[in-house]
Amino acid sequence: MDLRDTIRTYRLFSGSYDIVFGPVFHPGRKEAVRIANDRPGQRLLEVGVGTGLSLPYFRRDSRVTGIDISAEMLEKARGRVERQHLAQVEALQVMDAEHLDFEDNSFDAVLALYVASVVPSPARFAAEMRRVCIPGGTIVLVNHFTSDQWALRFMERRLAHLARHIGFHADFPLDAFVRESGLTVREIRPSNLFGYWRLLRCINEKPASTFC
Length: 212
Hints:
The protein is an alpha/beta fold and 212 residues long. It contains 7 helices and 7 strands. Strands 3-2-1-4-5-7-6 form a 7-stranded mixed beta sheet.
């Protein structure tokens, strides 16, 4: 999968993203933020913040940084921050999730909502989240993973080749992701409509894997 495909897809969808991916995904966003942002004064990173749909859910006493590969999506997020006076948002930056421009142990918690299956290397993406999160910090992901139901799994595998060309892993097994990511998963629960998505609550155990 090519990162340029993902950038092109998000550029095309930036105007309609909130309508298509808004309310139906709100339960996962709200629960992920609640789990990660559970104490006052935390510094948090959201990887793949998109148009900033999750930003209003963070505590007002937190310090939130959001990054995304799409400049168009971030423009929408900046507008949301301004309109809703989201003072907890410290920065919104264009950045590659697989090459985070932050020092080690920079954040108390890291979130990635609907991102793991749109990055070229999920293992590198996870290693970067682990690197910038403090030891013992919380990492929360919400994502689509390959269905346990044979009919849906068959469809996902048939669509996998096409999905790669728009920057998406349609066939994305949970077990393989957990194994390759090196994440220490403490809890997995169903999320959103029909429980088709999964929420993973992880504890950051150091050291993180390194990639050249």
